[in-house]
Protein 1
Amino acid sequence: MRLVRFQQKPGESRIGAMVENSHFVELQAPKAANEPLITFLNDAHGEEKARSAVDSGLKMLKNGKSKANGSLFKLDDVTILPPIGRPSKIICMAGNFEEHLKEGQGLDRPFPISFLKAPTSLIGHRAPIHYPRKVKLLDYEVELATIVGKRCKDVSKSDALGYLAGFAVFNDISARDIQFTEMKRGFCNLGKNFDTFGPMGPLLVTPDQAGNPDDLGMELRVNGQTRQFASTKQMVFKTSELVEFFSAMTLEPGDIITSGTPAGVAIYRKPDKEPYLLKPGDIIESKIANLGRLQNTVVEEPRY
């Protein structure tokens, strides 16, 4: 299934299943569910309900009802929220692609090295990325987001994929000046965690439709220019290895583990990084095969 979380009015958290690339049909969201997509997926009849709804949506489209009509919507006519609203943790890999390690004069990785990203950083498809006034070097990082579907601890690599709800596109926005200052002391916190620094979506794609998570093409463009182009098959630690490793602590439904990013980030561009760093007005498109295209625009931070 390819699922979305959306709203038409502020405060809503409604869910839907994609009928085709531009249309989706609304599903009945579980009542009082903190993460409605995860709750829906864990319903024993969830897949049956979704398939029935998608069949109805296909009939509506066939009959020429291409605009929002009852339970059928166009992606462009609603606000698409990140698939997960408030995970207990977002675990981000630091250096998991060979070429990215090389461009950053990387270190050996005897085991996965990570940092935590704040749930308050999450935003959805087409939501603006705020350029904080105190930041000087703003950067992008396309990543694969692995979404935990079932509570688990100390799972084996062979069983790891069975605990997943699905996958999504993720963009680890980074304030490099603050990040690198923090890292001199061995920390990585605020530089990765400003509000809006975690674009995610537009879809949650279940494992049966996502394909092999360790062999998906990745691309990030800024204003139509390709900046990153790679594949998850270049990951040092594969998806099941990451789930196995991080399940040493309890993983909760809705938790997110990201893949790390491939080479091509702005900060390591030579001889001059300045033309590649993000600035207000830039349009970022992050794509992963089978998972869709996530688009966000950089804007100046609003004054509250």
Protein 2
Amino acid sequence: MKLRKVGTSMDVQGKRVLVRIDANVPIVKGRAVDGPHGRIARSAVDINWLSQRGAKVIVMTHLGRPNGRRVAAYSVKPVAKRLSSLLGTPIEVTRTVTGKDVDKFIAKMGQGDVLLLENLRFDRREEENAPSFAEALAKFGDLYINDAFSVSHRAHASLDAITSFLPSYAGPLLATEISVLSKLEEHMKHPFSLMLGGLKMTTKFSIIERFLSKLDSLLVGGALANVFLVAQGKKVGKSVYETESIKSATRLLKKYAKKIVLPTDVVCVHSLRRDAKQVVKSVDQIGASDRIVDIGPATRKMFTQTLEGSKTILWNGPLGYCEIEEFCSGTRDVARAIAAQTGKATTIVGGGDTLPVIESLHLADRFTLLSTGGAAFLAFLSGESLPGIEALKI
């Protein structure tokens, strides 16, 4: 896939550069929760590159779901603090998203300055992909850069419509992700293992359908595995799963039974508390009051052995209830196994839910690609058209 990309020889000195990033991270007690390899931290590298070359960098992002209203809890001020700490320079936040207020902020900017626009979703036209909003944003810049792969599956004004009003380019972060993911099918080496976890079968069904005929092993964990267990006629107690996906799982098992690797044992609890007693059970022994929260030790060993023999590994979604650290052991063990294969295999990990786990293990730089995308990652690999990417194609 060929995109218009930001080149090292591009002259940005003195130019107003609008950069769309994805800084939609959790805000806890006024602080943006973003690790060393988080979305803001990785975007900061490219923002700094532009700043060092004398650009006037105007950063855009959304935060949460304010539904077109100005909501103080969704202000991007915590994002500005995080960016300031990363770049070592104060970063102001505009009071509004468009209009004369923003014009005044930009008029004061010098070469190398960085400004953050207030939450794009404070204006309902952002999610409507309204040309009027895109045009209003475009007036602030001389060129536009999309460096937000993780939201490029959305047809929003700051990702799609804006490209009709300004010279538009893919930023380095986005371009790298697209390059690696595009080459996946072209240079796929076997054995190829796809590992999926998380909750929703509906969000992952397209990628399963697209790759099942091409891969060697589909390893399934998390609540996603519960659907397949139920499709096999097993009991999962009080464990969560998508009932509407049972028919799809049954159909896949009939056609690809030899390729689909499911848990043989699981960790069960009776309540979702950190101190809940954990019991390892065979998938044939799950009681009515049990909740599955992790894959068991035999399953971890089986998954690890499969991954150790793979040349291409694609992973999305945790294998346990990782919202509680005590239920994340299986995910951590398998993350280590995948990281150990990098170099011998192409290792691609996508999904925001897995990033905190990987960072806690200090493994974030141990994969071929650690994608910033969750839904965008799945959509791209499912062969869907991503509006934000389509707008940048040559």
Protein 3
Amino acid sequence: MAQKIPASVITGFLGSGKTTLIRDMLANANGKRIALIINEFGDLGVDGDILKGCGDATCSEDDIMELSNGCICCTVAEDFIPTMQKLLARDIKPDHIVIETSGLALPQPLVRAFNWPEISTQVTVDSVITVVDGKAVTEGRFAHDVAAVDAQRSLDDNLDHETPLSELFEDQIACADMIVVNKTDLLSGAEAEALVARLRGDSRAGVHVIKATMGALPIDVLLGQGVGAEHDLDARHEVHHHHHDDDGDEDDHHHEHGHDEFESFVVTRPEITDPAAFAIQLADTIRRHDILRLKGFAAVAGKPMRLTLQAVGPRVDCYFDRPLIAGERRETRLVVIGEAGLDRAAIEAALAA
């Protein structure tokens, strides 16, 4: 059976930095072919024009599909599903699909759509990523320009024009597998940490809350989370069940940024004896050191197969993928990825124990 194509749903209010995050992702895709579906009915073509061509072979203009008939959560059947079918009918399939919702789209109906027979056998929701305007939320506004949000909300008769932004924000947080607190360069260190702590408390267990400037995050942090969100809808409760609005987004500040707020390193250790016990050891190390991602391979004593290990947060998946090649070293090599400041010595000691 063919492996399902992973899809990431990126949501967040107008101005939070979704488009900037996606542009940075495409510029650092490392050869991964990414298809984009952009929902921007309120300001036609802006995000699409920003993104077209920026990924070259990674994401050509043909790989960018725009939905402009209304908020994506209101037009799943007539707009989103046909677009997905058209994308999946191509001879050359994408490695990953990224969906940028309109700013006030409820993510839950969109995730639910991945259970439709037309796409459920071919695509899975890798994760829901909610981008937060750190400065606006700290100031209690949720969006940096509330008037612009309200103006866009009025453009679609299907949208809920009355629900407070705070409730729509809660829906986006409730559905998230990762929350990106963007524009942290506009906050003090104490403000940023307080907001991260608050969002961790408001989100589900295991959801990563990470800081970013200009949406710059390593692609290995954003993609490949393997959540399968469409199978976990009960945990992603909606605060309300009314459709709503808003669109697109582009960061409007110009601070320098980069991926140096994150770090990765390789830990090598001898072969392991008990994969199940080692998975528990990995999960414990991840929790104690707030590791974002851990992946690699292990040799298991007495086994001729290589063990693949992948962890997103404390969830660890492991499976034997192929026979060990003659002359291949019987060792364990793990790549550890996290925010800058990881205690490398302590992590190495914990994984080597």
